[in-house]
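ok so heres the complex, six chains, lmk if somethin looks off
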Amino acid sequence: MRLSRVISLITPHAVAEAHCDLPCGVYDPAQARIEAESVKAICEKYQANEDPEFRTRALIIKEQRSELVKHHLWVLWTDYFKPPHFEKYPQLHALVNEATKLAGASGAKGSADPEVADKLLAKIDEIAKIFWETKQA
Amino acid sequence: MRLSRVISLITPHAVAEAHCDLPCGVYDPAQARIEAESVKAICEKYQANEDPEFRTRALIIKEQRSELVKHHLWVLWTDYFKPPHFEKYPQLHALVNEATKLAGASGAKGSADPEVADKLLAKIDEIAKIFWETKQA
Amino acid sequence: MRLSRVISLITPHAVAEAHCDLPCGVYDPAQARIEAESVKAICEKYQANEDPEFRTRALIIKEQRSELVKHHLWVLWTDYFKPPHFEKYPQLHALVNEATKLAGASGAKGSADPEVADKLLAKIDEIAKIFWETKQA
Amino acid sequence: MRLSRVISLITPHAVAEAHCDLPCGVYDPAQARIEAESVKAICEKYQANEDPEFRTRALIIKEQRSELVKHHLWVLWTDYFKPPHFEKYPQLHALVNEATKLAGASGAKGSADPEVADKLLAKIDEIAKIFWETKQA
Amino acid sequence: MRLSRVISLITPHAVAEAHCDLPCGVYDPAQARIEAESVKAICEKYQANEDPEFRTRALIIKEQRSELVKHHLWVLWTDYFKPPHFEKYPQLHALVNEATKLAGASGAKGSADPEVADKLLAKIDEIAKIFWETKQA
Amino acid sequence: MRLSRVISLITPHAVAEAHCDLPCGVYDPAQARIEAESVKAICEKYQANEDPEFRTRALIIKEQRSELVKHHLWVLWTDYFKPPHFEKYPQLHALVNEATKLAGASGAKGSADPEVADKLLAKIDEIAKIFWETKQA
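and the predicted structre for the whole thing:
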């Protein structure tokens, strides 16, 4: 079961949270996580298939999905998290910065290794944990 | 708690499911649902605020979010659901068609009424219920 | 001469039909067909050219054009076709579903074979035939 | 009957023509024309409906469709037309430039008057006429 | 004269700097600044023109340009700046976070006041100043 | 030092100029130039690295950056330059047309040769020279 779901079960938070820039007030780290799971699955399929056409397609799509991971994380960082959150979690800036780097050229974009995608997923889960704590507060 | 989460808790399914066109095998109706929740929140904020600038911005963003709902539902319909699913659930074609229409001009795009967004959410939950049943099978 | 044009010549229909989600009332299956013709031409050029840079570019662009085929067909299915159409043409749901699958991973995205593109074009023509019949009625 | 269709009937040209940047060799001025017809229909609906929500949505969508008109015309100008065409049709540069301006702020974007859309359509037809002459040659 | 230009004149740095995620190594805060200047100009034109069509268009375009400001700043934060930069400039995380917030709902997206755009421009200049110092080092 | 900067230093022009289709009045050839510098850097990295994954990624990103070059140049041609400019600079139409072709299939998209990118940069500088002259007038 995915970590964000486990966390969402054991914490009594409201369900819906802002994610567009109205702002509508619906944010959910699941958006970044779903794309990162896709990136990992792409890496696994890439390693298991040596057909050059398939591999080129895998890299094209991995590039797009990794960009979506970055975007969803940037939105949380800018639009959801507020100064009090950064004060309470002094590591939060660096954490999101590292996660977005792990979705970029030095991470999931630049590598087709599923272990790199796993590191990205772990970072997203760290952010999700903080996210859900702040929702609970 | 959102329905797709409740369902995901009471059914022993695998967690990750395809959503890009490699295909990676990671699909999740939560993507459509999160955008639709955003649409509903936008409608509520629209009704509660008569400032013309705010209202114009709300309509701009509602248009984008509704389009994302349509897109995520189309992806499920074309990329996740297969002929055996349509055979087992004969109402599935019409259901997705109605849901996408409810996200369009005759639904959430064409109206700022939260009740219209509620109807869209209900349709998405019907699709999600079938989705999770097929994951379990 | 492309089929949609032949059909348009032998049937006395109005020329302009809705395609945006206002809705403006201008729909035309030619939009999907033009992109699918592009996909076929890309496949032919791919097969005729072994230069790896050219082939990678061909796959990048084929991915984009195939996505546009899917999008234009989805718009017809959701925004143009109405319940009476689905009643009169019970095969219409499956037809559009198959056509969009033929533009995706199990079709034109996943293959650089011009014959796959031909199958996609044939499906689009079946949809276009129904489309123009409904315009005439 | 739209002009490009009339022309396509009376001239013995090949059907498919390049439009992506492989290049695939499939170009068709119908792409710009369909979007411009949409723009015109939006203007007409705008004038006939004073509901502020509807009008805002009309302006949002008109902006997008007008941008597509510009894009399709730019593609013809850069990717399809070659130096010999510009030599044979010395007015062609100015013609496309005026057409794209008519799709922008000083034309269909900046105005909701159907007559402005008509001027845009007329310019597109002038370009289409030249286009089909060059296909024939 | 814009600040980034003044700075670029008085410091002997290399001209080209990474901005895509290859990474290509071409970054330039001018990208964010040009979009923010556009946002400011839109605000000024909005205040000077009470035509409702014009105002709606201004808000549509301001939304897009503000999003581009956010995107360009996010790219600098994730792709250009590295741990040693964050160590040397401990305020850098908060600075970029504030700048992106100033381009969003609580800033240039949510307001048509040119003074809000001025604050955004000032923040971008602070980031640009640090950027050019790091290029020089 | 990049040419547009040198020119901007020796000519007493206003700094900010239109680039969105409000129009906001902020145009700057630097936008096209930054993307073209990126294209050149990508070509150089491509030639220096034989890893197939890296090369595929380089081609994916080069395709996107070249498209942005075309887009920024098209915007200048349609939205900034006016009939009096085309009258004063009779070569301007052909110049922009050649520059956009050099960013497309017969130029930077179709080739990974840094010299092709250099030709593109030189054309952009010719356009920038005219642009700044017209700002000065």
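quick notes: The radius of gyration of chain F is 16 Å. thats all i got rn
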